[in-house]
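Show me a record, fold above all:
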Amino acid sequence: MTQALQPVSVAIGDLAAHPANVRAQSPEAYASDNIAHLKASIAVLGLLQPLLVQQIDGKFGVLAGGRRHAALLELVADKAAKGVTSRTKIDCRLVPDDCDVTTALSLAENITQARPSQRPSAIRSQRSKAGCAMGSSIRTSARRHVQRRSRST
């Protein structure tokens, strides 16, 4: 990928799940109990890391940052959370439409964010998805990262 990811502000209501997000097959990752700390952090500090998005079907598909997206949706639904609505704009990075490494980008994001116990399953789930050289390269790098982290814990 030679293009830089362009910054863009997107309303929370214009965000949707992206089918290439590697955690899409792990709905437990988005459960309220698993994102409560993230929801609290965003409520107090705001969104510290932008979401990676790609335009799909008139929306912005969240390629990386699905748990942050889920926490934002909970904040919108929470009447006690003042100032967060579906029209609230958040910082994102736009992945170009012609980018053929969307799954690899999602994996790269999620491997660095996942707890050590989650990393091997993210890699296994990715084996069937990546069809590009970059995806293979990231899987290999991620596997090495997991092995090094496993030795250090």
About this structure: DSSP finds five helices and five strands in the chain. The two ends are 33 Å apart (CA to CA). The first strand starts at residue 6 and ends at 11.
